[in-house]
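Blackboard transcription, Thursday session:
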Amino acid sequence: DIQMTQSPSTLSASVGDRVTITCRASQSVSTWLAWYQQKPENAPKLLIYKASSLETGVPSRFSGSGSGTEFTLTISSLQPEDFATYYCQQYYSYSTFGQGTKVEI
Amino acid sequence: QLQLQESGPGLVKASETLSLTCAVAGGSISDRTFYGGWIRQRPGRGLEWIGNIYYSGSTYYNPSLKSRVTISVDTSKNHLSLQLTSVTAADTALYYCARAKEPTSYDLLTGYLLRSFDIWGRGTMVTVSS
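(Written on the board underneath:)
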């Protein structure tokens, strides 16, 4: 199975900061990678699919990049509503999620 | 706008079968584009993919759960179903159903068709009691 490892596990940031979260796959997943945001008591929300495609309605401050085994999610200017946990998901071979990155103040 | 709503018993005894349904509103499962899946989240932990089902009935399962999982669709009721047999405490989780959106990844080794998930239900909590 393909393992997905996110770093860091927790990230402390302030409003206005540029934030980068990394997701590494144990083997290549090409660009079959998605990013989700989850807030407490809510279902995950799709932000990015196919590594870099922004989901409709998601603010342009979110961007994704990468291919193969290394991917990044970048928030260009952190907003108060962005404090949440972020997950990556590979859907190249079966499907697996990363363990999550909590973005906190 | 498509909406999904999970339902089922909140408590299941160990060794029994967990059965959940996911009602689909605002769209038809019979639509040839429909593709859905189940994902779970154990308390305080991350997300785990359970499996997907295509409108045609083709299913794709997490290999770690495959021997115990059945996902099906009922077009007359416009809902998805999940059955998980021989449950243990490790199956205690919040269970989500979700719609899987294009584009589609084709896994050459397994023949699986895989996607990301763009519309999620609110989830239903299932606790397995001993």
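Lecturer's comment: The first strand of chain B starts at residue 3 and ends at 7.
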